[in-house]
Amino acid sequence: MSKITGLNKAFESRVRLGIMSILMVNDWVDYKEIKEKLDLTDGNLASHITGLEKLEYIEIRKRFVGKKTNTSYQITKLGKKSFQQHINALEKLISGI
Asked: Are 11 and 17 in contact (CB under 8 A)?
């Protein structure tokens, strides 16, 4: 069996790795905060968010804060499990197990 079998293709992108890493350690994170932390354009972030949402790895919450809309994201149980499996597979690959 190949040592890279456990890697998840959904997390090959550095952007998706960044998004998931932020969401693993935070409850709800605002769009603007993710965009700034990862230094992304709106279009780049939006396309990766859409992909992760379609896979049901993240959930989106839209609400009003004052008169402005606020969009924030949270990792789902499936997303957390899938990302942890990906990280475990990377660790095995790096350690040569």
From this structure: yes
